[in-house]
């Protein structure tokens, strides 16, 4: 007679329990590891259900809000971002709940950093029937990246010494102005400006002092132009001005006179024996040229005519001296 009526089944039951305990232990370890990784991310990471209630938030929510994570779990998103915030993000929420990944840029105030640029990404969590049961939220601070991009754009389009637009930026504006002028049957003027006497100052006092003179000239002349005109530094002691929608020659000639007078009256400290002036060449589009490069050459030629004629004056391309 067998005394162990169910020896095999008892052992199988014990093995099953051990296996279940191991699985639970492994799942707990995986959960703890995942939680550790998510809490280590210095960005907002959360999971929101289809009814817009938080089901998970990483530690960043507690760090930035000063509240324990228990205050978030089970609460509606609107409680923390307000009605205006909900109105702003509602179109994005509608899109993710419709099953699409969403990515957009936003401005966000952190606890100790205001007006931060962030990149927000929502990823839908779909069931087998494609019904969206929730979505993940990832908010990454990209302020440093945006500032670096802005700095590169400035370097590409602006002169670091005077903070004026550079030649590349000016050329782009000329092309745009040419398209508008042809479309609207209007014209624009270029004033090419070269400083008289600057080389002597630079040679006598050195480049740092010469750089300050260029900054002073730039700050002085930019005040003489209209807000919708483009004043740029071409390099060295050369500047250029784009004047759009020119009504008549008198308008441009008067502006050239004012710029020459402004440079002549510029107070240069410690430069008692030096004088600085400006020679200006003027050319019109499309009167004097039908291409941007040709127009720049015409204005440059006119500027050299002004220099040869005695300096500290302007010359309009095609005029008789």
Keywords:
Alpha-Beta Plaits, 5-stranded mixed beta sheet, 321 residues, alpha+beta, 5-stranded antiparallel beta sheet, elongated, 2 domains, Beta-Lactamase, 47% helix
Walk me through the structure:
This protein is an alpha+beta fold. It folds into 2 domains: 41-145, Beta-Lactamase, CATH 3.30.450.20; 158-316, Alpha-Beta Plaits, CATH 3.30.70. It is built from 9 helices and 10 strands. It has helices spanning 7-40, 59-65, 78-97, 143-157, 167-184, 198-205, 207-222, 249-264, 292-308; strands at residues 44-49, 54-57, 102-108, 116-126, 132-141, 188-196, 230-235, 238-243, 277-285, 314-316. The strands form 2 sheets. It has a 5-stranded antiparallel β-sheet, sandwiched between helices. Strands 7-8-6-9-10 form a 5-stranded mixed β-sheet, with helices on both faces. Strand 4 (116-126) and strand 5 form a beta hairpin.
What is this entry, summarized?
The protein is α+β, with helices and mostly antiparallel strands and 321 residues long. Helices cover 47% and strands 22% of the residues.
